[in-house]
Specification:
The protein is mostly helical. It has two domains: about 70 residues, no CATH class; about 110 residues, Hypothetical protein, domain 2 (Endonuclease III, domain 1, Orthogonal Bundle). The chain contains eleven helices and no strands. Helix 1 packs across helix 11, helix 2 packs antiparallel against helix 6 and helix 2 packs antiparallel against helix 8. The two termini are about 15 Å apart.
């Protein structure tokens, strides 16, 4: 059987995908868990390369220590944070990354709300430990800016539907950008779509390299 012809994920394709997933999985709402915008951002940094249950354990430890507040976290040091975030793994880097986020949030988050979408994303990317996927998650869920997470779940879902998904996050985002603009999703719709893609992605096998 010949390989399926790759589809271009244009606006109608993405709208149909959202409707299909909504019918299958039901409304997801404001999907990312967190008590506040800062909690969501902390979770987005802590969950990198670990399971959510591990990130949640680290979040709970920070909260119990009173370090889930930006100003208090910004005044902490790596040695204090190390045992608190150990559950999330990567003990050499995650305390430093959490501290960098706390300092940025304390100093810049309020002013950053006045930035344009692209400038906000660039500023987030300059914070240690915030890569492209994390920047998009924080932009969407913490600052309510239009963003689509080109994560592993999105890769699985679109590959399963015949889209030739590029290998890197950036090229994947570039592929989707025209279709997302044409679809004109609102910020709540993008948050909903992300939650739906995650739910669907859990049921789809990881694409084989070169497939």
């Amino acid at each position: 059987m010949p390989a399926p012809v790759p589809q271009t994920p244009d606006g109608p394709f993405l709208r149909v995908l959202q409707a299909e997933l909504l019918e299958r999985h039901g409304p997801q709402g404001w999907w990312w868990p967190g008590e506040s915008a800062f909690h969501i951002a902390l979770g987005a940094v802590l969950v990198q390369r670990c399971r959510w249950v591990q990130a949640q354990a680290a979040l709970d430890a920070l909260k119990a220590a009173g370090l889930d507040v930006p100003r208090r976290l910004a005044a902490a040091d790596e040695q204090t944070l190390l045992p608190l975030v150990r559950a999330a793994g990567f003990p050499r880097s995650k305390p430093r990354r959490v501290l960098a986020l706390g300092r940025w949030w304390d100093e810049r988050a309020q002013a950053a709300r006045e930035l344009g979408d692209a400038d906000l994303r660039r500023e987030l990317l300059a914070v240690e430990g915030i890569g492209e996927e994390t920047a998009d998650a924080i932009s969407l869920y913490c600052f309510e800016r239009p963003a689509f997470l080109c994560d592993e779940y999105a890769r699985r879902v679109l590959t399963a539907r015949g889209v030739a998904v590029p290998g890197t996050y950036r090229t994947f985002a570039q592929l989707l950008a025209p279709g997302l603009a044409a679809a004109a999703f609102t910020v709540p719709e993008l948050a909903e779509l992300h939650g739906l893609v995650v739910e669907e992605g859990k049921t789809v096998a990881r694409p084989r390299p070169g497939a």
